[in-house]
Model the fold of this input.
Amino acid sequence: MLDLKIDREGVPPKAAATLLVLRDGDAGPEVFCVERNKASRFLGGALVFPGGKVDAADADAAFVGLSRGLPSSRDGFADDEAHLRTLAVAALRESLEEAAIVPLARGGPSHDALLTLRDTLKNQSFSRVLEAAGLVLDLSALHPFARWVTPIAEARRYDTRFFVCRAPHGQDGAHDDGETTASFWATPRAVLERFAENAVMLAPPTHRCLEILATASDVSAALALAARADLRPICPGLVMQKTEDGESTMALVLPGDPEHAIPEPRVPGLSRYVYRAGKFVPEAAKAKSE
Done:
């Protein structure tokens, strides 16, 4: 799922954007998850949220007129308003491509119409698709939630901004059967339970986002969490750690961990993810005496 090498010099991360779409369910807020194609070189087979690399076309000036509002931003989440708009546009383009979900300023088309719009993206730019359909993006529906940077030790690196939004009415979502091969709505807690049972794969950023959302009683509470979140970048470091039987394994340490260069935590939860039985699981840092 990851290609980690502890002595890798690293490459500059590419900008990326991800959207966590939430809706209220009987057992609490549900999030829309997609499974990446197993053939993908990065996170193949993992459960993720719709998202991907920022394209140059996402910065097209046409989106000023094809969008309404902007997400609230702070803590250096974006360089300026133009950059914030580009990130939000990228998140919504990827959401339309991978989930057939996109918040719009003036209502929106039916589920089937969204599937048709998604098909047109294969041959036309996002701005042209919106303009032809007379649609305007509602960027104010997006709420910055987190910023994760792929470790230097990984061969493919991304500087990913995570947004959360409430699911637009009537948009049920659907994977694209290309980059994504399955999709479903579930409570964050249910996804975490499936991960613990080895039924699904989760990368550490996805796992941590789900842990945080699992504390919310409904979508409104989840959006309130986003409003309080630390949006400064989280770049895990790769270290080696001894297991109970004396063997060595990898651990991804987060800001606030004793072995991370940044001493203050930037996200709630345990400070490292340790590689055990084929997956990275959250753990507390070992005391120096151990």
